[in-house]
Design a protein that fits this description.
By secondary structure, the chain is an alpha+beta fold. It contains 12 helices and 16 strands. A hairpin with a 5-residue loop joins β1 and β2. The longest helix is centred in the C-terminal third of the chain and has 24 residues. It is elongated, with a radius of gyration of 24 Å. The two termini are about 20 Å apart. Bound molecules: zinc ion.
Length: about 400
């Protein structure tokens, strides 16, 4: 079955056809979750899957599952999927490529009359982007039980429109309980959304880990006083202390392999030219794919803040309010085996952004296949890739799913 290949031209045409729904002037897509354009994209996916012999079901969160039976339909199925919604100024490939790579796998098996060992399932997850409704990865998050269905149903967009009402309006409020598919493995193909594969000249990224994230609000409390009358040695300047923390965050990130540290938001009180600032609040975002390393980064940040507060006689409060644990993709060996069989150049990589597969990894052994994207640019209307790169990713998905299906059948 090694000579089995997807049809890259057909995959590219399908990508371009899907991109018409919400097409923007700059060549991107504006297809927010549960809008009319999202409905059109979903309808086309369903039609394509039914034409290729699938039965389609929808769960209460609007997640879609197209099932292709195999030889033994009592065994757990092998799943794949991604999302069809986009950012308001999104591209043609983020999410959509993963869904349509699945459709291309399905068509290839269908036209070659190949019966797989287990059933295969092709899915679309609701509102991955988190743009119209928050949070991101909402459909897969409900599916795996991280979020409560009723709570997410009642989320509203900026116009006060309720998510459940939109699901109903576009015809995707299903009756199946989220989390009830019988899956034995799950794979997601995605453009990398970063520059590493292109930079390293590799065709396939085998995603071993999804990086962990720690978010903070840091408040520095000093003392407001007159900039013209307060000698330097008598100041409790929250701006200078904040600047030292910001610089330390960059240094912490440099100190560890794959470390990332960002301060993207800052509020200065009273924000006046001739008053030494009394209180400053800013964000901090630390990331690393290794949980121990991320914890050490956390410890260095809190340790630095304690020490600095003591030295400068001011108060530094570090509110660590969100932790997203690093994800291990336990089925990535299937991806590697398929990639090597096909002879594509490859490297291990970690996922820097969140993906539906990061949540699916809670429930079933999962894997991700990354393909290069031009200049690493994503969440942008100029997001781009090539037909050859998409074809390679879909070929790896095809052989990964076959590999996983055979593995599950062997027991
Ligand atoms: Zn995506």
């Amino acid at each position: 079955m090694l000579d089995l290949n997807v049809n890259g031209e057909r995959l590219w045409q399908s990508l371009m056809e899907m991109a018409q729904f919400g097409a923007t002037e700059k060549g991107g897509c504006n297809r927010l979750a549960l809008t009319d354009n999202d409905k059109k994209a979903r309808d086309l996916f369903v039609a394509w899957c039914e034409t290729a012999g699938c039965t389609v079901s929808v769960d209460k969160m609007g997640n879609i599952f197209a099932r292709r039976p195999g030889k033994n339909n009592d065994l757990p199925a092998v799943g794949t999927g991604s999302h069809l919604d986009t950012q308001p100024t999104g591209g043609k490939f983020d999410g959509v490529f993963g869904v349509l790579a699945g459709v291309e796998v399905l068509r290839t098996l269908h036209e070659n009359n190949i019966e797989t060992e287990t059933a295969l399932e092709f899915s679309v997850w609701t509102n991955e982007e988190g743009s119209r409704f928050q949070p991101a990865m909402q459909g897969s998050g409900v599916y795996v039980g991280r979020f409560d269905l009723e709570t997410e149903w009642n989320k509203t967009d900026v116009n006060g429109i309720r998510l459940k009402d939109e699901l109903e309006r576009i015809g995707y409020l299903g009756d199946e309980e989220p989390g009830s598919r019988n899956l034995g493995a799950f794979f997601e193909t995605h453009i990398e959304q970063g520059p590493i594969l292109e930079d390293e000249d590799k065709t396939i990224g085998i995603v071993r880990l999804g990086q962990g994230i720690r978010w903070y609000n840091i408040t520095v409390r000093g003392q407001e006083s007159h900039s013209g009358t307060t000698p330097m040695h008598l100041r409790k300047d929250s701006m200078v202390a904040s600047a030292k923390v910001v610089t330390e965050i960059e240094e912490i990130a440099h100190r560890f392999e794959n470390g990332l540290g960002t301060v993207g938001f800052m509020q200065v009180y009273p924000n006046s030219r001739n008053t030494i600032p009394g209180e400053i609040t800013f964000s901090a975002d630390l990331r690393n794919p290794n949980p121990q390393v991320l914890e050490e980064m956390h410890n260095q940040l809190t340790g630095f803040c304690d020490k600095l507060a003591g030295e400068r006689g001011l108060e530094i409060e570090v509110d660590h309010f969100w932790y997203f644990a690093p994800v291990e993709f336990n089925a990535s060996d299937d991806v590697k085996a398929a990639t090597e069989k096909l002879g594509y150049s490859h490297m291990d990589i970690y996922a820097g952004a969140g993906h539906d597969a990061c949540y699916m990894a809670d429930l079933v052994p999962s894997g991700m296949i990354f393909t290069p994207c031009e200049n690493g640019i994503s969440h942008n209307e100029i997001e781009n890739t090539t037909p050859e790169q998409c074809e390679a990713g879909a070929n790896v998905l095809l052989h990964t799913m076959l590999e996983a299906s055979a593995r599950i059948a062997r027991g």
